[in-house]
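Notes from the 1:1 (GR / supervisor)

We went over the backlog. Supervisor wanted to see one worked example end to end before approving the batch request, so GR pasted a single chain during the call. The sequence is below; no edits were made to it. Supervisor asked that the structure be written out right there so they could see what the output format looks like.
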Amino acid sequence: MLSLSKPATGGEPEPTDVRVPVGIFDVQLPARQFVVKYKAAEVGDVSLTTEFLLRLLYSADGLSEEIAADFFGFNANEMAYVVRDAEARAYISRSDGRIWLTDAGNALFKEGDKPQIYDVVKKTERIGFDLLSLAPCDRESQSEFERSLPELAIRDPNLVANASRHIPESFRRFYGEISSRRDREAVDQLKRSLYSVDDVVAGDRFAAIVPFVAMASVRRPSEPEALLEKWRTGQELADRDRVVHGVAEFLENLRTLKTPEDANAFDVLATIAPEYLKEYVNRSGFAPLRYFKALAGRAGELRRNRPTVGIVGALYQPENAERIATAIGYANDRALGNDDVFLWVVPKQPAWGASRSFLDLLETLAKEGVDIDATGRKMERSPILIDEGKPQWRLIKAAPRTYCRPNTGAIPSSLEVLLIPRRVSAVVVHAPIGEDRGFPIPLGILSFDATIVRRVHQYLTDHLPAEVTKYGSMDGFNARSCLEWSQDTGAEAVPNSETSKKRLPASNGLEGHDGFYNRQQKGKSR
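Structure output shown during the call:
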């Protein structure tokens, strides 16, 4: 009989430590090219007959040419050709009609009765090494967006300043890996060994891209760990431990402190989807840790009768991007107009959008479920990114129509809102959960429910400026033009504009809220 211990009275069982992806990143790894001049010992090309002649003489040195010819069944001309080949390499010598192994010929049999025949050749290679672990890395062309990705910090400036002195040692250490990239077949690799490194000349600086995923556990959500299996695995990753430490340091620097704005952002989230999130709202407000644990234990899959699901992690993580594409497909049967843009209110996070997956999602949002015009050409939606203050350079490179909103607190800095007008919306909060300082875990909802989508329309109408402009420019975009949603095109049982203004938070994210915030205030007054 197997018995399980019961939790103490009033307590709850300890949750299983599930790991959840909470972020996806591509970072720049500083590197440099070096011109390395070296010598390699390669297996020489000799005929099998020459090899077996050497073996014969190794067993019975000083044979006459006639006996050797009889042993192989050769005539005089054939035997003379074989002897001439070995003699030209200084492996044998002839005297008085007999054949003898030279000292060089005997030296070929150090490891057994098979001669190890090598040729030492001079070579020059242009090799890239990263400047953290001095391990080989490839140089590839990069787009302007990729060049604007954040860079891992140099951990040892002295190593970088004197890299040319350390490259010979690294070249010897990684010679097997370097040669394997050039010679794919293992047979070719076994024919070559490094003889010496003669000279190293430093070349151009460049950067390689390191992709990784931040994985958070349910028990310690504020301290995610980096998973680098898409970059390196096994021994290759173990040889680059300084890069691993650099990535861990990068994640550590992303940790933030909780702010009152985070609570405002969770209030907005709970107001946008009160029916879906009612289990996670109490007198103290929204319970993000409980919501995170609930989502970690189940995968939110959209269905026609399940139009709203919870979201953990960046919207551009592959699993979330797939959910967004599914939501667009379900909402595609609505007769809509002006489907030419989508809005993306960006959270003020230093590494938000620092992933090539972000570009993939932009392309999906631009092309998924769009109409075909009168000429038969498939239309595309234009991304409208709205950042707080000066936008990150990579966002401008990813979406030229990137605008800024003032830092007035009208929209909390940790709030992210994605809206395909009248179709799909996602509301996500980036804030530490469980502890006062931690990694800002993206936590929110994705929905194609017309009621929720309309609330997002109304929230942005109430809190975004009527026109947003590009940073340092007068070039603007009228956000209200794509947020209008007349009553005859909406869904049934959706509050009208005046009702929505009463239900949704005002500029500070709390005023005018008739939900749990008012209940909380009444509780305080009592």
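Supervisor's comment: The chain has 20 helices and 20 strands.
Batch request approved.
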